[in-house]
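@channel sequence for tomorrow's demo:
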Amino acid sequence: MEILLTLLLIPIKFFFKALIKSMFNAIVEGLYQTYGYEVITVLGNTALGLILGCISLVVIPQHITPNIQIRFVNLLITPFIFGALLNLSSNIKFQKKLLMFDLVNFVSGFTLALTWAAVRFFFAK
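structure tokens (generated this afternoon):
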């Protein structure tokens, strides 16, 4: 009986795995066709910020600064600095003659740092 149940569950497992993968691909393709790569970049950096924030909580679970006002200022200012640095590094990487402000690079760095800092702000002990 167990073997029969296992044999029935294997195709169901593959079906649902293929269904979820095709739904994810359809969502990403729909976002790309509607908004372009900018939205996918921002969503990816938000997810990366969440992952890095969780990893940083595992490594250092307590707050680095004891004062809540300093932590709040860090939550507001650090994303702007990180976004500006990512924009500057992109200009240097692609050897652009003029220092151009690229909104996609800035927002990517901003969302990464904001989600990382927000995870630390709300979930650190």
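heads up for whoever presents: The CA atoms of residues 42 and 50 lie 12 Å apart.
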